[in-house]
Specification:
heterodimer, A: alpha+beta, 7-stranded antiparallel beta sheet, B: about 325 residues, alpha+beta, D-amino Acid Aminotransferase, Chain A, domain 1, globular, ligase (chain B), ATP-grasp (chain B), Alpha-L-glutamate ligase-like protein (chain B), metal ion binding (chain B), nucleotide-binding (chain B)
C-alpha cells in the first residue's frame, strides 16, 4: 500500500492554485465575482477651438493621466489634421499633437475619451522630484510674502503640514493684511505655489475636471500638488481644501500648459461629459485588451468558439453533480454521464420544454421500438433504426410546433439523438425484462439527476464563474479526486442499513 | 422505519461496510484488474473451475457467431431442459431458462412457450452485447438445467435457490441463501424481490431473513418459516467457495453455488463486486470479520484449515 501523501499534496496544490488563479483574475484583472455587475463609466469630450491665421498650425494638447481613472477608449476626430499621440516616459505625460499645413478661420478639434474609475486615488511619485528653484518675489510683495511664510513655517513640521497651514492661512475667514495684499496681485493657486517653492517644497500646478453627468462647456480647474514622502497630495488653494473628490479627474499633471497652439489665436478648450453604466465584465475585458493581457485566453477566440466553450466548460459542473449524487448520496443513474448530456440539452431548451420533449420523444420511440422488436433485427441495426426514427420524431415535433406557433417546440432539435436512441433501447429492454414500473423508476431517476445537474449548470453565477475563472476547474478536479477517495457511507445507505444500526 | 436514517457512527460501530469503502478498500485493493476476466466471463470461470476440480453445471454448448444460433435445437436434443446465458452478463440479466422440452417446443418455468424466433432474438441480443458490461460483444452459453435439491422445497418459488458466500482472502466470512419469490419472477437477485436468508458460517443454519431490505420471518409465497432452514452439505460448500480463492486469486470474492439433486453443490458463478445486502440478510456488518482476517497477516493455511478456522471464528455464536 503506497502512501497517500503525494495524492493529498496534489489535491491541495490543485485546490490552492485553482482558488489563487480565480482570486488573481478577480482582483488583478477586475473580473467581477458576480455576473451582471455594472460599473460607472464617463465619456468626456474635449473640444479644442482656435482661429487659424492662414499659417501652418500645431496644437499640442495634454491628455488625461490619472491613476484614479483608466482610459478605456480614446479617439480624436479632426478632419484634415495629422495626429500623433505621444507619451513622455519621463514625467508620464501624454499629449496629442495635431498639425496642419494651413489653418484659416474657426478650427474645431475633438478628443473623446471613455474612462472608468479604478478606485486608486493616491498619486504615487515615480521618483523624487528635484527641489524647485527659489521664487523671486517682486519688490512690492517681498516683505509681505516673507512675513506670511516665516509665520506659517514656524507652525509647521513637514512639507505636508507647511502646505496645510499655508492653505489655511490663504483661506482664513479673516485674512491678514499681508495675505490680502498678495492675493490682490496673484491668483490663489500661483501664490500658494510660489510660497511653497520659496521654501524649497516640491509642488506643481495641475489641472483637473469635475465630472458631472450631462454637463457641457466645462473648464479645467487648477489645483496644486505637493510632494510628501513619495506621494503627491492635492490641494485646492481657491477654497483651502486638501485631498480630492471622487468625481475629480486630473487631466494634466505635467505642470506645463494644457493647450499650446502655434499658428492660431484665441485658442480655448471646452469639456462636456456623460455618465454611463456598462457591464463590469465587458469593461475589464476591454481594459485587459488595452494592457495586452488577453494574449493567451479564451476571450481572444472568435465569439462563436467562445460560446461553444461556455457550453463545454459547464460539463465539469454537471459531472461534479453526478459524482456527488452517486458517491455521496448514492443515487443510481442509468448510463453514468447520460444525465449530464440531457442537462446540456435542457440548457438549450429550458427545463419544462426539455422535460416534455424528452418524455414525448422517448414515449414515441418506445412505441416504435416495440414494433421493431418483433422483427428480430440485429442489435446494431435495431439501434440504428431507432436513431433514424428518433430524428424523424424530432422533425415531426419541430414542424408541428412551428405550425401551431409554439416556438419552444423548435428547440427540441438540441437533444443528442444517439443518446436518445440508446435511452429508448435500454428502456425497451428494461420494460421487457422488469416491467413498466422499473422503466418509470429508472427513467424518472435519470431525469431527476438531469434536472439537478441542469439547475446547477444553468445558474447564471455558475456560468459566469466556469467561463471567467478557469481556476475553478482545478478546484472541481480536486473535489472529484477527493470524492474518489471517500470511503464513508453514502447518504442512502444510512437508510438502507438502518436495521443494522445499534444492533449490538 | 423505512424513512429513518441511521447515524453514520452507529453503522460504523456495527461494522457495516458501505459501498464506497467496499469499492476502494476491498475491491480496488485486493481484486487485481488482470484477473477480472476469470470472474466476469462465465465461460472462463467454468473452464477454470473444471480444471480445478470444482463441479459446475454441465456445459452443453457455446454460441459464438450468429449462424451458430441455428444449431441450438440440435445441441439441446435429449435434454430435459436448458439455460441460455450471456457469458459476460451481470445482475442475472439475459438468462433464459427452459425447464421443459417437448420435441422442438420449449417452455419456461411458468409454463409459457418460447418460440424459436424468440430464442433466436435472445441469443442474437446476447452476441451483440446487450447484456454485457459496456455493451462489448459476447458469447452465449448453453448449460444443462440444474435439478435442484428438494431440501429447499417450499422455500423457493419457481427459481433455483442459490447460496452466496463472501470469501475474503480465502476465508468464507459470510453466507446467505437467496430464494426466489413470485415478486422476483423466479430470479434470485435481492433487488428484484428475492428473499435473502443469512446463514451461519459455522453451521449452515438460517439466522435472519429479509426481502427488499426489510426483515421477514416467513416466505411470502409459501409461508414457510425461513429461519428454520438448514443448508445441507455445508462443509462441502465452504470448501468449494474457499477453493475458488486459489482459482481466481481475487481477495474479495462472492461465490454463487447451487445444490443439484444428483451432482451435489455446483459453482454457478463468481462475483468480483458482490453486493452489500448480505449484511442485511445476516443482520450484522461484515467489517469485523474482514478485520479479523486482516489481523491474521500472511498465514499460508490450506483450504480445509481455512474452512475450519472460519467455522470456529466466524460463526455467529462464537463472538470472534
Amino acid at each position: 500500500m503506497h502512501s497517500k501523501k503525494p495524492f493529498y499534496i496534489l489535491v491541495a496544490l490543485l485546490f490552492i492554485s485553482g482558488i489563487a488563479a480565480s482570486v488573481f483574475r478577480g482582483i488583478e484583472h477586475n473580473v467581477p465575482f458576480l455576473p451582471g455587475k455594472q460599473v460607472q463609466s464617463w465619456a468626456v469630450d474635449a473640444k479644442v477651438s482656435f482661429q487659424g491665421i492662414g499659417e501652418p498650425a500645431e496644437v499640442s494638447f495634454s491628455l488625461p493621466n490619472d491613476p484614479a481613472f483608466e482610459v478605456l477608449v480614446e479617439n480624436a476626430s479632426s478632419p484634415g489634421y495629422g495626429l500623433t499621440i505621444s507619451q513622455d516616459n519621463q514625467d508620464q505625460e501624454r499629449r496629442a499633437l495635431w498639425s496642419v499645413r494651413s489653418a484659416t478661420g474657426l478650427q474645431n478639434l475633438y478628443y473623446k475619451v471613455t474612462l472608468i474609475p479604478t478606485g486608486t486615488t493616491q498619486v504615487i511619485a515615480e521618483q523624487e522630484p528635484t527641489a524647485p528653484k527659489d521664487f523671486i518675489w517682486p519688490a512690492t510683495e517681498k516683505d509681505a510674502a516673507e512675513q506670511v511664510i516665516s509665520k506659517v513655517w514656524a507652525k509647521s513640521a513637514t512639507n505636508l503640514t507647511f502646505a496645510q497651514q499655508l492653505n489655511k492661512a490663504l483661506n482664513a475667514a479673516e485674512r491678514t493684511q499681508n495675505v490680502e495684499l498678495l492675493l490682490s496681485s496673484n491668483t490663489p493657486t500661483k501664490l500658494f505655489l510660489h510660497m511653497l517653492h520659496s521654501k524649497g517644497v516640491p509642488a506643481q500646478e495641475v489641472s483637473g475636471l469635475y465630472l458631472e453627468d450631462q454637463r457641457r462647456r466645462q473648464q479645467l480647474s487648477s489645483f496644486v500638488e505637493v510632494y510628501n514622502d513619495g506621494e503627491w497630495i492635492l490641494f485646492d488653494p481657491s477654497n483651502g481644501t486638501q485631498g480630492r473628490k471622487d468625481n475629480l479627474l486630473l487631466w494634466d499633471r505635467s505642470g506645463k500648459s494644457t493647450l499650446d497652439v502655434t499658428g492660431g489665436v484665441n485658442s480655448q478648450v471646452n469639456f462636456s461629459m456623460l455618465q454611463d453604466t456598462r457591464s463590469a465584465l465587458a469593461t475589464s475585458l476591454d481594459v485587459m485588451k488595452n494592457q495586452g493581457a488577453l494574449d493567451f485566453s479564451l476571450y481572444q477566440l472568435p465569439l462563436e468558439e467562445q460560446s461553444l466553450f461556455k457550453g463545454i466548460l459547464l460539463i465539469p459542473i454537471g459531472v461534479l453533480m453526478v459524482v456527488f449524487l452517486r458517491v455521496i448520496v448514492g443515487l443510481k443513474t442509468s448510463g453514468t454521464f447520460m444525465p449530464v448530456l440531457i442537462a446540456l440539452a435542457f440548457i438549450q431548451t429550458t427545463l419544462l420544454t426539455g422535460l416534455i420533449g424528452f418524455i414525448l420523444i422517448v414515449a414515441c420511440g418506445l412505441m416504435i421500438r416495440s414494433y421493431l422488436s418483433q422483427l428480430n433485427l440485429l442489435l446494431i441495426s435495431r439501434i440504428s433504426a431507432v436513431i433514424i426514427v428518433v430524428i424523424g420524431i424530432i422533425g415531426i415535433f419541430t414542424l408541428l410546433s412551428y405550425k401551431f406557433g409554439l416556438s419552444e417546440g423548435l428547440t427540441i432539435t438540441f437533444f443528442p439523438m444517439i443518446i436518445l436512441a440508446w435511452t429508448i433501447e435500454r428502456m425497451s429492454i428494461l420494460w421487457e425484462e422488469e416491467g413498466p414500473k422499473e422503466v418509470l423508476l429508472q427513467g424518472g431517476g435519470s431525469l431527476f439527476v438531469a434536472t439537478l445537474a441542469y439547475l446547477a449548470m444553468s445558474a447564471t453565477w455558475v456560468q459566469h464563474w466556469v467561463f471567467n475563472f478557469l481556476g475553478i476547474h482545478l478546484v472541481i478536479l480536486a473535489i472529484v479526486l477527493l470524492m474518489g477517495q471517500y470511503t464513508g457511507y453514502r447518504l442512502l445507505e444510512l437508510r438502507r442499513f438502518k436495521p443494522l444500526a445499534g444492533d449490538k | 422505519m423505512r424513512f429513518e436514517f441511521a447515524m453514520p457512527s452507529s453503522l460504523h460501530k456495527s461494522g457495516v461496510l458501505g459501498m464506497n469503502k467496499r469499492n476502494i478498500d476491498y475491491i480496488g485493493r485486493y481484486n487485481p484488474r488482470k484477473f477480472y476476466k476469470r470472474v466476469d466471463d462465465k465461460l472462463t470461470t467454468k473452464q477454470l473451475a473444471i480444471a480445478n476440480d470444482i463441479a459446475v453445471p454441465a456445459l452443453i454448448g457455446v454460441v459464438r457467431e450468429q449462424h451458430e444460433i441455428e444449431e441450438i435445437p440440435a445441441m439441446v436434443e435429449g435434454e430435459s431442459g436448458f439455460v441460455i446465458k450471456p457469458s459476460k452478463g451481470s445482475g442475472g440479466k439475459g438468462i433464459l431458462v427452459i425447464t421443459k422440452v417437448e420435441g422442438d417446443r420449449y417452455f419456461k418455468p411458468n409454463g409459457q412457450e418460447v418460440t424459436h424466433s424468440e430464442i433466436y432474438r435472445h441469443v442474437s441480443n446476447i452476441l451483440s452485447g446487450l447484456f454485457s458490461l459496456g455493451g462489448a460483444p459476447d458469447v452465449g452459453i448453453v448449460e444443462g438445467l440444474i435439478q435442484f435439491d428438494p431440501v429447499f422445497d417450499g422455500y423457493s418459488y419457481e427459481g433455483v435457490p442459490d447460496i452466496r458466500l463472501i470469501v475474503y482472502k480465502g476465508f468464507p466470512v459470510m453466507g446467505m441463501l437467496r430464494l426466489s419469490t413470485a415478486a422476483s419472477d423466479g430470479k434470485a437477485n435481492l433487488h428484484q424481490g428475492a428473499v435473502g436468508v443469512g446463514v451461519d458460517i459455522g453451521t449452515g443454519k438460517g439466522l435472519h431473513a429479509v426481502q427488499f431490505d426489510t426483515p421477514v420471518d416467513l416466505h411470502p409465497d409459501t409461508n414457510k418459516k425461513l429461519t428454520d432452514i438448514q443448508v445441507p452439505q455445508w462443509d462441502f460448500l465452504l470448501n468449494t467457495a474457499s477453493k475458488a480463492y486459489e482459482m481466481c486469486e481475487m481477495g474479495y470474492l462472492g461465490t454463487d453455488m447451487v445444490l443439484d439433486k444428483v451432482k451435489g453443490p455446483l459453482l454457478l458463478e463468481l462475483n468480483a463486486r458482490p453486493g452489500l445486502a448480505i449484511q442485511i440478510a445476516n443482520g450484522r456488518g461484515i467489517l469485523p470479520y474482514l478485520n479479523h482476517v486482516d489481523s491474521l497477516g500472511n498465514h499460508n493455511m490450506t483450504v480445509s484449515k481455512r474452512v475450519e478456522y472460519a467455522k470456529k471464528h466466524f460463526s455467529h455464536n462464537a463472538e470472534s
